[in-house]
Design brief:
Two copies of one chain form a homodimer.
Chain A (H helix, E strand, L loop, with lengths): L14 H12 L6 H7 L8 H13 L3 E4 L4 E4 L12 E5 L5 E4 L2 H14 L2 E12 L1 H4 L1
The structure holds a DNA duplex (30 and 30 nucleotides).
Chain lengths: 137, 137
Amino acid sequence: MSVHEHSHERDELTRNQGLVLDTLDDAKGPLSAYSILDRLRGEGFRAPLQVYRALDKLMEFGLVHRLESLNAFVACRQDECGAHGTIAFAICEKCGMVAEFTNDEVAHLLEDWARSEKFELAKTTIELRGLCEACTA
Amino acid sequence: MSVHEHSHERDELTRNQGLVLDTLDDAKGPLSAYSILDRLRGEGFRAPLQVYRALDKLMEFGLVHRLESLNAFVACRQDECGAHGTIAFAICEKCGMVAEFTNDEVAHLLEDWARSEKFELAKTTIELRGLCEACTA
DNA sequence: TGCCATACGTTATAGCATAACACAATTGAT
DNA sequence: ATCAATTGTGTTATGCTATAACGTATGGCA
């Protein structure tokens, strides 16, 4: 039983979207679009656009996130995917682990800044790079 | 008189580093490495690595920042460049304007999270995407 | 049934970044 | 002054990331 049964039901996804989401769900860490492509060649994928188009939709649904500092993608690991405006990531530069977390206080502070500057906020990216607990030892 | 007279003196930079920094200083907004390259062909630049190597050093000195969500670079506009651990950016998706700001409270909250998770924080990326005041009108 | 919106498949191309190698300039200790 | 180590440079080649532009297929719905 996957994490993604709730917000968008599995069967609302197209075949390509489902395959891409499964691939990300199965992966231990983030994947680049091209490595998703390679893992799906057996399913008939042949071109990057098949992956990118599915990813665009999955991100729109809030089921997948893009890690900007990595040019890679992860399946959302949170309950209530897509319910959160702002999600932060901690990325281990040694083992590739990605932790996903929310912090409403941070989100509000940034929203306050935006409001004070009359900046119409569409999306917030927060990415922490460093070493996870296991890798510092 | 440039913003960059203080932390690293201009003459501590190599010719290539100085040219790249000047280009970014003169630019209104962020530039990709390749557009920096094109602007410096007249100065003898011929290959991307000449730009990337200079950028790496300038980022190390804190004189230039990389915008992860744009794959582009900006000259630091703050006083005391490089003195700040965490800088946030607001990027207008219409006009390309970039505002650079710091918020110690946000930085501390993220540091607190890292500490509580025993995550050894090396670098924090915060990027706000949206529309600037001028472009919402 | 016919229309419209969305998804799909394919080819080609554009844009971003680094590997690997050779050479030059600088520093700095002996 | 010399040698060695480090840092910066120039160059070629290559790899990774992303999208444009075209046409076809599919599904919902008036």
